[in-house]
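#onboarding

Welcome to the new folks! Below is a worked example of what a typical request in this channel looks like: someone posts a single protein sequence, and someone else replies with the predicted structure as tokens. Don't worry about understanding the tokens yet, we'll cover that in week two.

Example request:
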Amino acid sequence: MEKQIRKLYIEASSRCNLACKMCFRHSWIGEGYGDIDPELFARVMDDPALTGTETVFFGGMGEPLVNPALAEMAALASVHGKRTELITNGTLLTRDKACELLEAGVKRIWVSIDELYDNYGKIQIGSDFDLVLNNLKAFNELRRGTNVRLGMTAVVMRDNIASLRRIRCFAESFEADDLNLSHMIPNRPEDTAQVLWPMCDVAAIKAANDRNGPIWYIEKIDDGRLIPMFKFSEHYRRELFPDEESLLEAEYFSWKGTPATRRMNYCRFIEEGHCFIRWDGDVSPCMGLLHTADTYLNDHKRRIWHESFGNVYEQSLGKIWESESYKGFRERVHAFNYSPCLFCGGCELLEENKSDCIGSAAPTCGGCLWGQGFAVCP
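Example response:
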């Protein structure tokens, strides 16, 4: 487990100009909307706790480019010697804005592309594919001959699983450097039918037969083991894929020779020294705890409560990072001794992330898709 802050996520804004199908913002509970104050950001950048920080990443649950001060903050992060990155839905990445960001020293821009062509608007609601396409072309022209990277990211669900191969070809056509794929976390009842991860060979559930039928239990495996992200159980293969070629493409999907894999009982945010500052200054340990929202797990409604270990308006980031409560949480997640809520039939404790059946301290992570490698952020 990393002891220092290596990657600092900044939620530049909790606002967004789209209403994408899979967005958590649909089910937020008591959450506000706003932009991070650039003066607050400047104070944070002077904190000695960031001495070993390599990357400042502008991303969260909103669209960073709606914050008018984004380029200014990116330039400040660059001046402090940090590798600066951001994620965007691409609609506001105009040629002028791309020029601004490149001049500010941004080294990588991730663009969310969850569907292509005629089907694009069914998932990225409120967007326009031709607009994003033209913005991508302009950005690609501007970055040519530089060391600025282009990444593309997609949330894979039933509606777009057949496009998996086309998304890869699309990324290749723009000479993208990186491609990030993630399973969907549903936040509305109607979205539960879109979820694909329960159809996968989870490689963690075993059954032992007795006179009353099968008894399910969780297999203890090496947490470092890499498991294919999109290897579907036999029952679902023909339902999802029309032919052998598309099935093979999805199951062994790779990008530049690297297959899409996941790790169980492993939180990248904790293990790799990531830290999040929300638009209002709250410091959270991961993407999943950045806001309070309702989600669905195995058809059970589950409320994920926001967790903050302090606010940078009131304390320095260094004091928050080194606080006993934050360090204790990181140690618990590193051990990952939680109830296996993700693979369980469900009980009333599944309804919130406040406790589990082995008495883990809140917030509990046994039902976290990020912790099982199904949800992946750039």
